[in-house]
Structure formats: C-alpha cells, structure tokens
Amino acid sequence: LKMSWFWLYLPLHLLMATCLCHSIKAPTTSSQQSFKTDLFNFYHSLILEDGKETTIHLLKDIPKRYYFVLEEGRVLAPFSITVTPCDVPIEWSILVYKSPPAKATPGDHDTQEVSKPQKASSMVSTIFNYKGNSVETYMGMTSHSALYLLEFLSTERDTHITVYLTTDTTSGHLYPELPTDPRIDVIGIGHTTVTLTWKHSPSVLQHRESIQYCLLVNEKHNYKSLCAAETAIRSSGMKLPPTLALSLSPYLLEPQQVMILSNSELSIINKVSSGEVRQVCMGTKNTYTVPNLSPSTQYYFDVFIVNLLTNASAAYTGTFARTLEEPEPKVTELRDGKVVHVVLDGKKQKFYSLQYQARHKKIHFTFQLCRGQIRVHITRNGKTVASENLSGLRYFSLKGKVLDTYLVQLRSTEESNSSVKVQASPHFHKPSFPLLPESLKIKSFSKLRTCRSVTIAWLGTQEESKYCVYRKRIEEDQIWRELQGADRCSGPESRHKSEKVLCKYFYDLNLQRAVTTETIKGLEAGTLYLFDVYLFGPSGIPVRYHSKVVKTRKKC
C-alpha cells in the first residue's frame, strides 16, 4: 500500500472527476449542489503526508481539511491515523470517496455506463467521527482505490493538534508502545513525598538507548498527552522547548524555571501562578519517589514514554495523590533568661517553634542572627504581634498579661543552613546580650596605613564593655568565604591564640565621642589581613562586629 503521487499532482477538479467519473457522466439537477460542495471541500484541503507527524493549527469555528489517497495494492491494505489534541477538545471525522465498479454495455467497449445512475453524494461516506481531547487512533482497511478527507474543528478557542498517518504498519511505530496496563500505581505517600511505579513499555525493552520515561507533576489536573501539558505550561507564562525530552537543556531555561541534576535525573521546576509544575526525566527507571512536596496537598502525576530520536511520546493513564498532613511541630520551651541556639535546615524550609509563658506583663525577646537569613514570627495567644526578617541583633519589647502564651516560629529563607540565638526574659531581667552601638562596622584609615601597620576604629556605647581585637592573614581567594560564611555568634574561643591582638574596656556617656581607635603593628608589607572586634556583654555573650579586610602597603 502506498501513496499515489500521480493522483496528488492532478488538479483538484480533475482529481474529483477521476473519483466520480465511473459512476456519473455529469451531475444531474438533483446532485449539482452536492457535487459543488465536494469540489469546494477539496479545493480547500491540504495533502496529509504519509509517515510524518503533522502539526495543524486550528482557528475557532473554522474547519480545516486534509486529504490523502490510497490505491489498490493488495486484497486488504491497512492504514492508521492518530490525532492528538494539544489543548481543548476538538471534533474530527474521516470521509471516504470511493469509486464504485462500473458495468460495461454489451457491444460497446468505448463507453461505460452505470445501469442505475447514482447521485454523487452516494459515493461519499463518513467512516469515523470523534469529539474530545483524548488521543485517538483509527485503524482502517481498504481493498480498492479511495480518496480520504479528514476534517478538524475547534469550537472552544484557537488551538493546535498533531496528526500522524501511516500506511506502513510492519516496520515499527512512530509512537512508543504502552503496556497492556498503562496505569500509574501509587505505592507510598508521605508528608512531602509520593512514590510511583508503572509497568515497563515494550519499547524500553527493544530500544533502551533511545527511550526514556518523563514525569510531570502539577496541582491542577492530569494531561492526556505531552503536547497538552506543554501547552498548559506555556499558557501560564512559561516558554518551553518543543518536547519535554528536549526541555532539559540549561540554556533554554526561563527565569521562572529551576533545573536540578541529581543521580542522573534531570528536573525542571516551573514557577507558575497555580503552583509548581515539575518535569523529571529518569531514564528507563519505572519507579520514582517525588521529593520536596508540600504537606496536605493534592498532586497530579503523568508519565510519558518519549522516543528521543523522533520526539514522539505516549501517555500513561495519569493518577493523583494527596500528601499527608504535616505533624504538629515539636515545640521547645523558653525559660527566663536562658539563651537557646537554634540551627535551621534551609532545604526543608520548616518552622522551628519556641514557646514562652509570661510571668510578667512586659517581655523582652532577643535574637542574634549567627548565620544565613531567618524570618521570625511571634504570636501572643494565637494573634500575630511581630513578623520580620532578622538582621544582626534584634530586640522585641512586648506588653501583655501575666500567663500570656507566646509562640516564636523561625524559618530559614535560603537553602543553606541558618542559625540564631534566642532569649526571652522579663522587662526587669538583666540582659545577657550587650548594649549595641549604632553600627557594628569597623573603619580603616587609608592615610594611616603603612607597610607594617594598620589603624582601625569602631563605635562603643554608654555602657562600659570589653572589646577584643583579632587579626588573621588571608589570601585573595579566601575573602568571600571569610566575610560571607562566618558564624557571627562565634566568640574568640574559636580563634587561634596567635590571632589575638588586644582586649580593652571603654565607654562614653556622650555617644558622639564613643569611638575608639587602635593601630595594629608588626604586619607584613603588601599582605591582606582580616580584622575582627568582639564586644562582650554583662553575661559574657559576645557580639562580633562586621569583619574588615585591609591590605598593607607594598612600599613605604
């Protein structure tokens, strides 16, 4: 069975005449309208190529027609047509124009007549029609030459579809094969994970190197085809490559997309208004645990088997699952004056909860940010009284009633680990943390910098406190790590004894004069040094000023 290219190159009116000439010599009065309609349909039709997937764009309420011709090649010649809607439901049908057998008049071999003339419309029949958004395949057989017309219509909005016609059913399939049971099974559900499994595609066993499974996770609904999923993501503001298999190229990612490579698996996370849409391709593994989901949330899961050579795909029957509710977080009790050091896992993005029951009306909460970025949320008897991102050392003075219950919730706002020190105390309680100056910056004086010394200055307070200065020789490639990765809560006990320069006490009741300077000598020429100043409070808890990097002069 093959495409008759001779027929395709004929003018369309001759093509139509060829199909109908055996049945009628000319249209009668009663069949003229049908004849004209058939001609009109073919004049406005396009050729559908054999063995190639064709993308067709449909405008709302405007039908689009394609035709192909099959000629007699053997007793029964099979063919198939697969239509994949990529968005809204569509209507499509297949019409066939057949040439009926002609009867010769005895004694006249130059002309052929039909014993009972038939109308042109009797030569046309609809053999298939469908309405919906599922992938549908029509399998047909023909035993004689015929012309087929496919008509597509979208009544909801502009959309696009793909159509695949093949007359070669013996040399393999464009689309990967689905197993006899194409369902996805949910075999495990957690608070933030769902484990899925599905039966292997026969195509994986035959063409392992060119076939892979891809998973789509979203919070809206299942998708019946890969192109439908891609269309939905694009309509949410994303710009995706043509297929999921190819969408894993880093240079094609949009700002709203995040790519993750882990254990030979490629993931893309699209940030859309309706939640995240995740795409994961995991090779030929047929079991996968989806991580980092939100608790108590319903997710929809679709698995596609993708041919990497042709970009063609087939969809398993989608499923859905709801993650378990998050258990009540463990609450740590805060006691008067006691400092609690909290370390938060940025990857899990979970709240750490601290509870404090007031024994006095006025309460002080103190937070010293040690590392990373943290957001604090404080409630009193269930009502929010404070919520902000922490920076350095932060005090909250709150007034309520005796036996009020305060809940402090802390969460890291970045993926790396963060840490903070927390203290709750009554208003009259002697604070453990020192009184802070207006700024924790260390200033260096360029004009006073020499080959062997550096002069630095920092602000003090109205309260007499102890200040210790430390220095450390560093290299250029260590600057970022020392400045950004330092634990701002760590004290001098973490420093080498050789790094200590001096300790001193000072204060001034006039804050305009509460400034001190120190000249650090015995340095090497043209060398980078990291300088730190530690301020100690009444209870001995240190506060570290912002580190300062200074380079001595090369020549003096």
Automatic annotation (TrEMBL):
Pfam families referenced in this protein's UniProt entry, alphabetically? NDNF, NDNF_C, NDNF_N
The signal peptide annotation in the UniProt record is 1-21
Q: Which Gene Ontology BP terms does the record give?
A: nervous system development
Q: Keywords on this record? A: Glycoprotein, Neurogenesis, Repeat, Secreted, Signal
SMART domains per record: FN3
> Which molecular function terms from Gene Ontology are attached?
heparin binding
Q: What is its main location?
A: secreted
The places in or outside the cell where this protein is found are: Secreted
Is Repeat given among the entry's keywords? yes
Cross-referenced Gene3D superfamilies: Immunoglobulins (2.60.40.10)
Gene Ontology terms: cellular component = extracellular region
Is Transferase set as a keyword in this record? no
The protein's matches in InterPro entries, at most eight in alphabetical order, are given as: FN3_dom, FN3_sf, Ig-like_fold, NDNF, NDNF_C, NDNF_Fn(III)_1, NDNF_N
**Domain (Fibronectin type-III) ranges:** 176-313, 434-542
Chain's role: Secretory protein that plays a role in various cellular processes. Acts as a chemorepellent acting on gonadotropin-releasing hormone (GnRH) expressing neurons regulating their migration to the hypothalamus. Also promotes neuron migration, growth and survival as well as neurite outgrowth and is involved in the development of the olfactory system. May also act through the regulation of growth factors activity and downstream signaling. Also regulates extracellular matrix assembly and cell adhesiveness.
Show the PANTHER family listed in the entry: NEURON-DERIVED NEUROTROPHIC FACTOR, PROTEIN NDNF
Name this polypeptide is given: Protein NDNF
Organism, by scientific name, is Leiothrix lutea
